[in-house]
Design a protein that fits this description.
This protein is an alpha/beta fold and 455 residues long. It contains twelve helices and 25 strands. An eight-stranded mixed sheet has the order 7-6-5-2-1-8-21-20. It has a four-stranded parallel sheet with strand order 12-11-10-16. It has a three-stranded antiparallel sheet with strand order 13-14-15. Helix 5 runs antiparallel to helix 6. It is globular, with a radius of gyration of 23 Å.
Length: 455
């Protein structure tokens, strides 16, 4: 008899924690585990703004899967583009654009999310994203290049437009991105004696009425005061009406001349979920408290792509927020449920009470709410960085991050443009491969054709 086949889709927090727990808890020969991911590393996403601002090197938050695994898991370098639930086949596009079929007995769907965009003219053509390592590295190069070009320009209008920066999204990602990059430009402009520091302007806008409402009114105001003190203009109840190469129009009528628009206005579940033809909740796959798809006990889903009921809140209809804290715990929990399913044991529902929130604003500035205790300033910074450091999965990553933090605190930044992606497109449309996925009908047709060809 062949061993049961467990297929895990996605190497984010949820998928990696699931695989690690499966490797530890499954006995040799009990099942075959396969992981589908385009990259052989797990990205520690909460620290991405610090890569964009040059505080951390890209390698320090890319945690090698092969370094931390026990080498029992087979890794397919590619992305899942469709799932045929009836045939129990996952369709994968490899990094060489080859289409392969991967059969499974149990599948764990953790493909994560993609950037949420709206039908805003020019947005995907002119805005930068902040969800991948390549995007963060490119944004850093781009921001520094604007200082270089402004310094060299003889045109006052061009100089002013290159020194204005717009970040859309008042959540954790947008707030941290604006805060960290503003610190970068504030420190860098001292090396440009021809530039007037007063020309550098950062705008943080969000359609919501409050900045990071999950923090509560007091800490939200505290974060906003930090940004205001640094000269970042925060506009709430405002979004983008249209974007162009050299200017952005806000919904309140303002036109801001800028060459830099960074879009961090939320995420939506991976388009893979739409290929299932199954019930969704706000775009996320509907699952039971055990994180199974209703009616199919061989399909599990978690993380950003799944509407996991939040039993800890005790509110009807409450679902877990798409945070790393939940994804990591769901990954470990779902591994136990997959093992229980293999061994014909009962599954357990997922319950986790949120431990709090941390927001690193760079330098000595931060706001944190661990276990409901509100902190700001240096104590909050210690909690924020302590949490991130402890959550890093490998000792090598911890050493690199700690060294980067120490070196940056002592020596500052070198403001170096690497040029690795110079002259290459790197806007939202170049990183969101949303047109690569198959429709449910296309998935079924493909699997049927493959089956006939195989016979």
């Amino acid at each position: 008899m062949t061993r049961p086949r467990i297929l895990v889709v996605g190497a984010g927090f949820a998928g990696v924690e699931c695989v690690r727990r499966l490797e530890r808890r499954l006995s040799p020969g009990e099942a075959d585990v396969t992981l589908v991911t385009p990259f052989a590393y797990q990205l520690y996403l909460p620290l991405l703004p610090q890569v964009a601002s040059g505080v951390l090197t890209p390698q320090s938050i890319a945690l090698s899967l092969r370094r931390s695994s026990k080498y029992r898991t087979r890794i397919i370098p590619g992305g899942a583009i469709g799932v045929d639930l009836k045939a129990k086949v996952c369709v994968v596009r490899t990094i060489t654009d080859e289409i392969v079929d991967e059969p499974y007995d149990h599948i764990v769907l953790a493909p994560g999310s993609v950037t949420r965009t709206f039908d805003i003219p020019g947005l995907t053509d002119h805005a930068f994203g902040m969800k991948t390592l390549a995007e963060a590295a490119y944004v850093r190069d781009h921001v520094i290049s604007q200082l270089d070009l402004a310094d060299a320009s003889q045109d006052p209008a061009e100089r002013a437009s290159r020194l204005q920066f717009v970040v859309v999204g008042g959540g954790y990602a947008g707030t941290e991105t604006a805060a960290c990059l503003q610190r970068l430009t504030h420190a860098a402009v001292k090396r440009y004696p021809r530039l007037d520091p007063g020309l550098i302007k950062w705008h943080l806008i969000d359609i919501a009425p409050k900045l990071m409402p999950e923090l509560g009114d007091k800490l939200g105001r505290s974060a906003q005061e930090v940004l205001h003190r640094r000269g970042i203009e925060v506009s709430l109840g405002v979004s983008i009406e249209k974007a162009a190469a050299e200017e952005v129009t806000f919904t309140d009528g303002r036109v801001v001349p800028t060459r830099t628009l960074i879009w961090t206005a939320g995420v939506v579940a991976s388009p893979l979920i739409a290929t299932l033809g199954a019930e969704t909740v706000r775009g996320r796959l509907a699952v039971t408290p055990e994180m199974c798809m209703p009616g199919d006990d061989g399909v599990f889903a978690l993380g950003d792509c799944a509407a996991v009921p939040d039993l800890a809140k005790g509110e009807e209809g409450a679902i877990c927020p798409p945070t790393a804290q939940h994804a990591m715990r769901q990954g470990r929990h779902i591994a136990e449920n997959v093992i229980a399913a293999l061994r014909k044991q009962p599954l357990r529902p997922y319950v986790h009470k949120d431990l709090g929130l941390v927001v690193d604003l760079g330098g000595k500035d931060a706001v944190s709410k661990p276990l409901g205790v509100e902190l700001h300033g240096l104590p909050a910074q210690i909690v924020a960085r302590g949490y991130h450091w402890s959550a890093l999965r490998t000792g090598v990553a911890k050493a690199r991050v700690a060294t980067n933090w120490l070196l940056n605190a002592v020596a500052g930044d070198d403001f170096v443009r690497t040029g690795f992606q110079a002259r290459k497109p790197a806007k939202l449309k170049d990183f969101e491969y949303t047109d690569s996925y198959l429709t449910p009908d296309q998935v079924r047709e493909h699997v049927e054709r493959s089956g006939r060809a195989g016979r």
